[in-house]
Amino acid sequence: MDYMDNIRNKLALLPDLPGCYLMKNEEGTIIYVGKAKVLKNRVRSYFTGSHNGKTQRLVANIADFEYIVTSSNMEALILECNLIKKHMPRYNVLLKDDKTFPYLKITNEAHPRLEVTRRVIKDKAKYFGPYPNAYAAHQTKKLLDRMYPLRKCGVMPKEVCLYYHMGQCLAPCEKEVPKNAYEEITQSIAGFLGGGHEAVKKDLQQKMQEAAEELYFERAKELRDQIIHIDALMEKQKINTADTKDRDVFGYAVDKGWMCVQILYMRQGKMIQRHSSVFPFYGEAYSDFISYVTQYYSENPALPQEILLPDTVLEGTDKSGKPQLAVSGETEQSGADDAAVAELAAEDAGKAVGSAADGGVTEAAAMRAESEEAALEAAAQTDAGEAAEAEAEAAAEGTVDAAGGAAALQEWLGIKVLVPQRGLKKQMVGMACQNGRVALDEKFRLIERDEERTSGAASSLGQSLGLESLSRIEAFDNSNIQGTNPVSAMVVFIDGKPARKEYRKYKVRSVQGPDDYETMREVIRRRYERVLKENLPQPDLIVVDGGKGQISSAIDILQNELGLYIPVCGLVKDDKHRTAQLLVGDSAEPVQLARDSQEFYLLQRIQDEVHRFAITFHREQRGKSMVTSKLDSIPGIGDKRRKLLLKHFGSLKKIKEASIEDFRPLSIGDKLAAQILNALKDEETSL
């Protein structure tokens, strides 16, 4: 029974239940994990209808699948996250960050400390964050360390340190610090990080004025510097909202099989930073997006008060360059209404920002915020029937819908998860999606620019050499140490890019001693005899590492022995082993290229690559020969036993470190084992 027969039989038995499915390749390796509200519909969709290129690649590698039934969509979401973490499937969206986001932590100790951490655990400490990067977290800690005198040392010293004399520590190492003093400081830090920096700033300004009036100018300057640092830290905030909730705003964009997820961090109603991830995806776009969000919160347990998610995003952009949002359950008329509501909300947001800058949110702004929430709830009730219909349609197609994904996340995380349809929250989600679109466009432009640069450099180099076209370049380099273990290597560049599958290594057979010219003749002969014999593609240019002698040797073999008239050039290095000059033809005429040109940069890449490849191969051969000579010189060790020893121990060093008992599993007696160890130790001593 072939793979497809087995899959067809399994498809017929799929249940109408939620769960997770695991796709496997021929070796039984799990290559994709997905979730579904209805397993039958979702899994069948992979083997029916047409797919894009990336999904076709996934389906082509599926040889079997299995599934796990769950009791709800939320359980399927959590199970999918756990299975992805366990199996790391090739075609899944993987949260590849090797570390979580940084947080500020006030430790739960008798003498608490303020520190930056990436681990959020249940230790009764107070955590603030997450911060988008370590720099932002450390800058905030640096500011708080100047303002609040918590201890800085990990281990309590025997006497007071410089921090005490600077007024940045209460010196618990020598003095008894009452518990209420720490509680007051902890509450002040929590208030500052919770959005109370304006009150702290006003207090510092008052203290600064008092110090200046009493002629304590140095103290006044310290307080002024703290105020400047607060302003600098808080000035980076981009957006204000009428309330003071902590939110994570998600958006995503998809194009050409790639996805960009953007996270905007709103803390105390202000946007402080964003995080961006760009990666290829192979499944259904929104399903993979929800998978990313689930993994994100499984790695970052400190949750905001609210999460905002986008609705389904279509691939590509509209004429304005903004991402197209496919909002389920809305007509064209409601879309027009959205524009009007968004315009009003933008005005409200502007007024709210102004009032916040004046010292707080006005009563009118708060009323507008309440009316906006009421309008959202009313709209949600109005569209409930249409949303349910859209959800049923999505389930029939086996895809994940926005409402279902948000509901599952909300049930799992225990916080509010919304898919806003209009108003300021919709604008924030739209901004996150737009940032994703811009990030993807930038990625594709960089790829196109790089391709133009590399192919353009090859074309320009061909023109400089007088060649009609220059697509395929083959480059050679030799490597030996005083003639020992001579090797050569060839690399291939096509349209300015390395074609690593076509690289070749050569053990030099006929040359004795350090003779670069004869080595070049042998390798050129062997390579292009095979090209002629097997009708392989011929290069447009051959590059040799060296000057006139190497060029002449290569041309002599090509023209006089093989009848090939392929242009040959040589790359000469300076005394610092850097590419210095390009020589062309048997007469070795120099070609002038600007050092900052793309053509010269391409030649440098070719020379560095072939040199790296040759050196690596030479080191491998030299290492093998050293091991071989040392073991072969020991009586009783032949070719089979040498291979057995190296396979068992892994290296010559580990053989030296072994005991006599370690040789017994190889059927090597104690006497021979002792001879091996003594011989290797004697050789080491003589060196």
Write a brief structural summary.
The protein has 687 residues and is α+β, with helices and mostly antiparallel strands. The protein has 20 helices and 21 strands.
Principal-axes shape call: extended
Tally of separate helices: 20
CATH hierarchy: architecture of the largest domain: 2-Layer Sandwich
Strand content: 15-25%
Number of domain modules: 5
Helix fraction by DSSP (H/I, runs of at least 4):
40-55%
Distance between the termini: 63 Å
Low-confidence stretches: 235-240, 317-388, 394-398
Oligomer state equals: single chain
Tell me the radius of gyration: 34 Å
CATH topology of the largest domain: Nucleotidyltransferase, domain 5
Largest sheet: 8 strands, mixed
Detailed description of the structure:
The protein has 687 residues and is an alpha+beta fold. It is 50% helix and 18% strand. The model is unreliable at 235-240, 317-388 and 394-398 (pLDDT under 50). It is extended, with a radius of gyration of 34 Å. Strands 14, 15, 16, 17, 18, 19, 20 and 21 form an eight-stranded mixed β-sheet that branches. Strands 9-8-7-10-13 form a five-stranded mixed β-sheet. The protein folds into five domains: 3-95, GIY-YIG endonuclease; 114-233, no CATH class; 241-314 and 397-455, Nucleotidyltransferase, domain 5 (2-Layer Sandwich), CATH 3.30.420; 471-622, Nucleotidyltransferase, domain 5; 625-685, DNA polymerase, domain 1 (Orthogonal Bundle), CATH 1.10.150. It comes from Paenibacillus graminis. Residues 319-338, 370-396 are annotated as: Disordered.
